[in-house]
């Protein structure tokens, strides 16, 4: 058995606490899967690296090069971790733009674990007010625990680790509850015969 | 093989002078461009259909096709595209058949679904029915050109009892139809089912889209028994800007590229030329790039170029046509030299239309 996880980080700085949280969540899910005898392939998508391509895709209508590659990886993912910094009371514009140019069926029924980071804990409801509706629209299967980490939590919050563990385990459960996605069908191969299309 | 140009009739400000042509000017320029195309030895000009600014393209292309047919003698007229979704197929059958008579058979058409969302509601349609409309409307159009006294009932238009579309196609031969789509496999399937042509827009998008659509169309063409996959009738778009010296071409075209509709303010000219089939350079570079298209679509029958958009002034476009005439004179024998014998050089043409110059070149 083998599964593909894709970790999306919307962090802009280096080092980035968003990337740190994303990595921890991805590792937690991967560890749980491995402990159950599942081979895991983890791929990380840093949105900063495709920021120009995301803007170009909005303007031209097609994704080029690395962005196209990242989109294909998401469509083929058995599970996704998506983490954004909070900007102006919501997900960052870059994070939203990445999902705006993604095929709207790409994450359909895919288990997704959400995370967000911010300077203070006052933004924590962003997970429920902004992120869950977005992934609801994409018809993703969002796991119950989403993880928020404010700057303080990296020092003071002894519960951050256990929250990450719990969330990772939930994603692993959700991934195992679904059949392996495998490789996508070749273009046009899932098309009904034309006589069927003609009958409307 | 047929070579030509396609235009969408955009009325765009020239970014180097700030001047925007009037609609009248753009319309007359389109006619002048078509006449010039024949003069430099091209075979086809295809006109877009539009219903909104900033386009001065006909809402019903046969109006323009009839005018150009009267001013030319060998040029074939086509469309890029005719909206099969929002037009009444009965009017399409009648208007294109009438124009086919006026043009003595020098006419075919390319069907598309359109890419302007509000056009659907303007004509009482729903964009979510786009594929369904394309399938139902074409099924009716196809019958109207082949049968008299048609009884028909469908979901999207009023039924017909004993209806005969007039005039009948010239000598009973319906205009050849191409189906165009960038990404919808249903349209490649439709083209294959009827044994019609498939046209890949091929501009503004990566070649990988074209490759997968043409590949699907060819496989299904064979599946439906119209011939071998490599005998399917394929047309491609292309976008070029040329100067004798490639650096001049880049320097001249960049201000138009940077602010162009569709892709302006986005990727750089260099990125876009590597990501899409756009070629900006010398005529020799255009010859080389164009000959490479067959590596991923196979040997094909029609190549159209976009040369008149983004605010390029008429005199520039006419100069581009002079250069394109030279390019095409090189492309014709080069494409035929590598084409297998069992693969047709040309798409089907009306029996009254003289054979394309390709055969003369080879003879």
UniProtKB/TrEMBL annotation, chain A:
Q: Which domain of life is it from?
A: Bacteria
Alphabetical UniProt keywords:
Flavoprotein, FMN, Oxidoreductase
Molecular function as annotated in GO: oxidoreductase activity
Every NADPH-dependent FMN reductase-like domain range: 4-154
Q: In the record, which residues are listed under signal peptide?
A: none
Q: What is this protein called?
A: Oxidoreductase
Pfam families named in the record: FMN_red
The family database entries (Gene3D superfamilies) matched by this protein are listed as: 3.40.50.360
Q: Which organism is it from?
A: Marmoricola endophyticus
TrEMBL record, chain B:
InterPro entries, alphabetized: Bact_Lucif_Oxidored, LLM_FMN-dep_put, Luciferase-like_dom, Luciferase-like_sf
Per UniProt, residues of the Luciferase-like domain are: 1-296
Instruction: Answer whether the UniProt record assigns the keyword Oxidoreductase to this protein.
Output: yes
Ranges annotated as biased composition (Low complexity): 351-363
| Keywords tagged on the record | Monooxygenase, Oxidoreductase
Pfam families referenced in this protein's UniProt entry, alphabetically: Bac_luciferase (PF00296)
Q: Where is this region: Disordered?
A: 340-363
What the entry lists under SUPFAM superfamilies is as follows: Bacterial luciferase-like
User: Per the record, what is one GO cellular component?
Assistant: cytosol
Q: Tell me one GO molecular function of this protein.
A: monooxygenase activity
NCBIfam families documented for this protein: LLM_CE1758_fam (TIGR04036)
- Protein name, as recorded: Oxidoreductase
**Taxonomic source organism:** Marmoricola endophyticus
């Amino acid at each position: 058995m083998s599964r593909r996880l894709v970790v999306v980080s919307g962090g802009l700085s280096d080092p980035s606490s968003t990337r740190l949280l994303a990595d921890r969540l991805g590792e937690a899910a991967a560890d749980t899967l491995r402990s159950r005898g599942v081979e895991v392939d983890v791929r990380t998508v840093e949105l900063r690296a495709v920021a120009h391509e995301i803007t170009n895709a909005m303007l031209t209508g097609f994704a080029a090069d690395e962005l196209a590659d990242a989109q294909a990886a998401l469509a083929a993912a058995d599970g996704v971790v998506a983490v954004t910094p909070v900007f102006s009371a919501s997900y960052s514009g870059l994070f939203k733009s990445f999902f705006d140019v993604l095929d709207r069926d790409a994450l359909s029924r895919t288990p997704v674990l959400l995370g967000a980071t911010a300077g203070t804990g006052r933004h924590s409801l962003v997970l429920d007010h902004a992120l869950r509706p977005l992934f609801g629209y994409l018809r993703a299967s969002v796991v119950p625990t989403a993880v928020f980490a404010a700057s303080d939590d990296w020092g003071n919050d002894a519960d951050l680790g256990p929250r990450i563990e719990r969330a990772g385990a939930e994603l692993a459960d959700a991934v195992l509850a679904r059949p392996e996605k495998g490789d996508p069908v070749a273009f046009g191969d899932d098309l009904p015969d034309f006589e069927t299309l003609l009958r409307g | 093989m047929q070579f030509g140009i396609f235009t969408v009739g955009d009325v765009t400000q020239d970014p180097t002078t700030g001047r925007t042509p009037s609609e009248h000017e753009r319309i007359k320029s389109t006619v002048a461009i078509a006449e010039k195309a024949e003069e430099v030895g091209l075979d086809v000009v295809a006109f877009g259909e539009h219903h909104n600014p900033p386009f001065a393209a006909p809402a019903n292309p046969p109006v323009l096709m009839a005018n150009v047919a009267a001013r030319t003698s060998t040029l074939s007229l086509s469309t890029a595209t005719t909206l099969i979704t929002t037009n009444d197929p009965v009017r399409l059958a009648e208007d294109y058949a009438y124009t086919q008579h006026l043009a003595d058979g020098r006419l075919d058409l390319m069907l598309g679904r359109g890419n302007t969302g509000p056009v659907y509601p303007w004509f009482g349609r729903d964009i979510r029915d786009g594929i369904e409309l394309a399938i139902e409307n074409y099924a009716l159009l196809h019958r109207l050109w082949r049968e008299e006294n048609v009884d028909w009932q469908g979901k999207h238009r009023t039924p017909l009892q004993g209806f005969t579309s007039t005039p009948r196609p010239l000598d009973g031969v319906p205009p050849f139809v191409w189906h165009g789509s960038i990404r919808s496999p249903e349209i490649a399937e439709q083209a294959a089912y009827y044994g019609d042509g498939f046209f890949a827009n091929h501009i503004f998008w990566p070649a990988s889209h074209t490759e997968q659509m043409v590949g699907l169309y060819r496989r299904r063409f064979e599946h439906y028994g119209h011939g071998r996959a490599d005998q399917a009738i394929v047309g491609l778009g292309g976008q070029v800007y040329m100067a004798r010296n490639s650096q001049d071409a880049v320097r001249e075209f960049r201000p138009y590229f940077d602010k162009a509709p569709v892709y302006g303010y986005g990727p750089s000219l260099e990125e876009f030329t590597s990501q899409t089939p756009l070629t900006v350079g010398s005529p020799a570079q255009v010859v080389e790039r164009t000959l490479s298209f067959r590596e991923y679509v196979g040997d094909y029958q029609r190549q159209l170029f976009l040369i008149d958009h983004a605010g390029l002034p008429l005199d520039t476009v006419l100069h581009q046509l002079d250069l394109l005439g030279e390019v095409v004179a090189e492309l014709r024998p080069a494409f035929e030299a590598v084409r297998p014998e069992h693969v047709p050089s040309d798409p089907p043409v009306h029996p009254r239309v003289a054979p394309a110059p390709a055969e003369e070149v080879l003879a």
